[in-house]
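SUBJECT: A protein chain and its fold
Encoding: whole-number codes for local backbone shapes
RECORD BEGINS BELOW THIS LINE
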Amino acid sequence: MSDVEDVGSTIRAARRQARLTQKDLADLAGISERTVRAIETGTGNPALAAVAAAAGVLGLRLVAEQ
């Protein structure tokens, strides 16, 4: 599994645990529902700011590693 897929699956799991729909998360993060789907499935090319916004709503942190 790639890093992008790992981030997406972590966000999906946290969203489900919080009992939020993709639409709920999109509204809270100020992004589109389509972007939430792209993040969770590891498809498309969502902006890092969108990923960070979704993660932040769920209380997750993004950490860059070399």
In short: The first helix runs from residue 3 to 17. The chain has four helices and no strands. The radius of gyration is 11 Å. Residues 14 and 58 are 6 Å apart (CA to CA).
